[in-house]
Amino acid sequence: MQNKQLNICYQVYQSGDELPAEWQSLLQKAVEATGSAYAPYSNFRVGAAILLDNGEVVCASNQENAAYPSGLCAERSACYYAGAAYPGAKMLAIAVAACHEGKLTETPTYPCGACRQALVEYEERGGVPMTVIVGSAGRVEVFGSVKALLPFYFDNLEG
User: How far, in whole angstroms, is CA 119 from its chain's centroid?
Assistant: First the structure.
């Protein structure tokens, strides 16, 4: 038997104002995207903004549905749209923010497991790490790669 240890390194900022300008802008777009969420059941609005290597920024929000789980998270909405509209572009960074009852959450809201797997596949496809910026009213956390959030992703599916 072997014991192994997994370490995840990330940066914590006390506010979005401490971020580099490009990440500040991306996070602000994610916050703005929460306004277009369709969340009548949870009243939990999530926005995502993805920076592509061609300079485009794709924004999306969560879309709920009464036939749960037919809705879709903001992160997958954004990455699927980016993948369809800009198939050759690499996804360099994603910012995520969430609002509940009209206020930015006090703690970060991380992408769910399904979103992490979808994002890591686009990261792999692009061949470059995708920075993950998770904002909240209390702090902002920045991860250098989606793999930091999902270190044991599905990567052996090819025949």
Answer: 8
